[in-house]
Design a protein that fits this description.
Largest sheet: none
Oligomer: single chain
Number of helices: 11
Number of strands: 0
Radius of gyration: 19 Å
């Protein structure tokens, strides 16, 4: 495998860096490429050449296309090992989350659709009821996956997923780890108002 060269975009670099830094709350310019984050990345084997330090470099060079569409953005598990190892306290997990949001806003196809479906289903349930209801959340997540596979005519994959989730669900019931009750909390109107405010702010950018 040959590592793709990063593209320096002088007209894009400063504004892109400032946007990501402001939205993530991280001082990307403090990165001096020591690669301590890369050495400890939990998903490094799954992301090819894209390590946390290289992702920061993409942003600093203004290589927007590669920064918004790479495996690390979608496979990062937010373990925060990178931030713990960074001598300048840069939390790359917050950067990957920011880039994921930006990719969705710009309609960049998700490299890992199931990850995008998981985030969407989790957020929808939390905003609707003030807390996440496991049955509703997982049901919505599985439906999103099933619709995607149906559009690809991969019906065998749908059946395989159903069987796998049924086995998992039964195991969780036996261990009393599956919560069947329906829960909600107060303050849902405020949560929903915050989401509308966030959506309006994104639309105004």
């Amino acid at each position: 495998m040959i590592e793709a060269a990063l593209q320096f975009q002088p007209t894009e670099a400063r504004t892109f860096l400032q946007e990501v830094a402001a939205r993530s709350g991280q001082n990307l310019a403090a990165c001096y490429q020591c690669r301590r984050c890369a050495a400890g990345c939990a998903v490094g084997d799954e992301t090819g050449f894209v390590t946390p330090n290289r992702l920061i470099r993409m942003v600093m060079l203004g290589d927007r296309d590669q920064a918004l569409s790479n495996e690390l953005v979608w496979r990062c598990v937010s373990c925060y090992t990178c931030g713990e190892r960074c001598p300048n306290d840069i939390q790359t997990a917050r950067i990957t989350e920011t880039l994921k949001k930006m990719a969705k806003e710009e309609h960049v196809p998700a490299l890992q659709p199931k990850v995008a479906h998981f985030h969407d289903a989790f957020l929808e349930s939390g905003v609707r009821w003030g807390r996440v209801n496991e049955m509703e959340f997982m049901g919505a997540y599985e439906m999103k996956n099933a619709f995607l596979e149906a559009r690809r005519f991969r019906f065998g994959a749908i059946m395989s997923e159903i069987r796998q989730q049924m086995r998992l669900g039964l195991a969780m019931l036996r261990l009393k780890r599956m919560h069947m009750g329906f829960l909600k909390s107060g303050g849902r109107a405020e949560i929903q108002a915050l989401r509308r405010k966030s959506q309006a702010a994104r639309a105004a950018r």
